[in-house]
Amino acid sequence: MTQESTPKDYAKQKRIKIHQPDASKADRFNPSNSIYVRAVTGLWTTVRRRIGWATMSFFLILPWLPWGDRQAVWFNLAEQKFHIFGLTIWPQDLTLLAALFTIAAFGLFFVTTYLGRVWCGYTCPQTVWTFIFIWFEEKFEGARNKRIKLDQMPWSFNKLWRKTAKHTSWILISLLTAMTFVSYFVPSREVYIDVFTLNADLSIYFWVVFFTFATYGNAGWMREIMCIHMCPYARFQAAMFDKNTYIVGYDSKRGETRGPRSRKADHKEMGLGDCIDCDLCVQVCPTGIDIRNGLQYECINCGACIDACDTTMERMGYDKGLISYTTENKLEDVKETIVRPKLIGYGVALTVMILVFVYASATIAPLRMDVIRDRNALYRITNDGLVENTYTLKLLNKTEQAQEYQLSMDGLEGYEWNGPKQVAIKAGEVLTLPISIAVDPGQLERTVTKINLVVDANIEGKAVTIKQESRFFGE
């Protein structure tokens, strides 16, 4: 090819089709269009599958792990307490749960700023379940081309049994998913036994059916629609991205101009880049995008197109990495900066929240006391001439065992305590205890005196003291 000739001229002579990128494709993601994902093998596919099976196994096994006389993780909504192994979170401690969600959010921000949407590609439940459904789809209906032909064929016994088997497997997986999810809120043994013996509460049946069809619809029918049109994370991820964020990127300088050729042909002489325009990167993409069109919010960073392209490059005898995990700066031959203010900010916020959560979890009180004054009368004078105030104590035993508590007061001398001074409370129970305190008026130096209601206990060999401030009113 002479210096004056162009790849187009050479292509006309050799009858080769050269693809010119189209920057403006209209309506690429019509929800009514089906995406047939092609199977692919490679490093990132293997990593994704192993992470997917690990997270799926963790989700399924966790409700069955025992912890004392209960399951290790149990969100007991009926009694308003969340058990997470040895930690019990009560409604009064929901700030811990809020801190946990905040840690998850900042962890997601930190990872996204550094590694892009790897959460979406490797650990998001929508992605994990979708690839599991696709695996069953391939087992019953065959590879991508066979599935396309099967959908185009008229109904027959062959098509009927394959479709029936596929959807049956989807429903069974969805049912298992739903029952496992419900088992986080209702003891797992009760869920499985009661549901299959028809002894479960109607609310349990409702949620099992609801989550079964939600899973079946999301992973079986909606798939890329969830990622492209419904997931809010795909929309606000741009706020965390910068030109040093790792993305799945196509090296256009190396790949263009793209076009088919034989393995033995000298594509440089033909004026072609390394991309042979096989479209495998598009066929293996679960959201149906063409990564060669540049960075797109629909990309979930799953790396399937990397494995497909590397396989093609290896077959052609070219260097791998035409599509790779890279950054915009690297693609533009600009120096990368890993440590940057945004990443440091997210890292510091994540570290602080983790430390706060660990400290709050370690210092969580095993007892809670609320003091309610009698508001109908500030005080009354007894027959003995004493000033008496009435209080209602609410004592919550937040431990897993029954406990005994000793009650007292400080802030006043010579007081009379009317009511029990020692009480026993079962695990997780709230005791409402009315008491009254009477004092000789001569002991009162002012009309309103600050006092502390005190509860002492010995819990697991440790002395625990809880104080709650209140007021004592006199003449």
For the biggest sheet, the summary is: 5 strands, antiparallel
Number of domains: 3
Give a count of the beta strands, DSSP E runs of length 2 or more.
Answer: 16
Tell me, briefly, the overall form: elongated
Oligomerization state of this entry? single chain
User: What is the rounded distance between the termini?
Assistant: 109 Å
Kindly provide the radius of gyration, computed on alpha-carbon positions and rounded to a whole number of angstroms.
33 Å
Strand content: 15-25%
Strand-pairing-aware structural class? alpha+beta
Q: Percent of residues in helical segments?
A: 40-55%
Question: Any low-confidence stretches, pLDDT <50, length ≥5?
Answer: 1-28
Please tell me the overall pLDDT: 87
Number of continuous helical runs: 16
Protein name: Cytochrome c oxidase accessory protein CcoG
Keywords: 4Fe-4S, Electron transport, Iron, Iron-sulfur, Membrane, Metal-binding, Transmembrane, Transmembrane helix, Transport
Q: Can you tag this structure with a few keywords?
A:
metal-binding, disordered N terminus, 4-stranded antiparallel beta sheet, 475 residues, 5-stranded antiparallel beta sheet, Ig-like_fold, Immunoglobulin-like, iron, alpha+beta
Q: How would you characterize this protein structure?
A:
- Keywords: 4Fe-4S, Electron transport, Iron, Iron-sulfur, Membrane, Metal-binding, Transmembrane, Transmembrane helix, Transport.
- Pfam families: Fer4_18, Fer4_5, FixG_C.
- This is Cytochrome c oxidase accessory protein CcoG.
- InterPro entries: 4Fe4S_Fe-S-bd, 4Fe4S_Fe_S_CS, Cyt_c_oxidase_cbb3_FixG, Electron_Trans/Redox, FixG_C, Ig-like_fold.
- The chain has helices spanning about 5-15, 45-60, 95-115, 120-125, 125-140, 145-150, 155-180, 190-195, 200-220, 225-230, 235, 250-255, 280-285, 305-315, 330, 340-360, and strands at about 65, 70, 75, 80-85, 85-90, 245-250, 325, 365-375, 380, 385-395, 405-410, 415-420, 420-425, 430-440, 450-460, 460-475.
- With about 475 residues, it is of the alpha+beta class.
- The chain folds into 3 domains: about 1-15 and about 95-120 and about 235-355, no CATH class; about 45-90 and about 125-220, no CATH class; about 365-475, Immunoglobulin-like, CATH 2.60.40.10.
- The strands form 5 sheets. Strands 8, 9, 10, 12 and 14 form a 5-stranded antiparallel β-sheet that branches. Strands 13-11-15-16 form a 4-stranded antiparallel β-sheet, with no helix packed on it. A 3-stranded antiparallel β-sheet has the order 3-4-5, with helices on one face.
- Helix 5 runs antiparallel to helix 7 (about 155-180).
- It is elongated.
- The termini are far apart.
- Residues about 1-30 have low confidence and may be disordered.
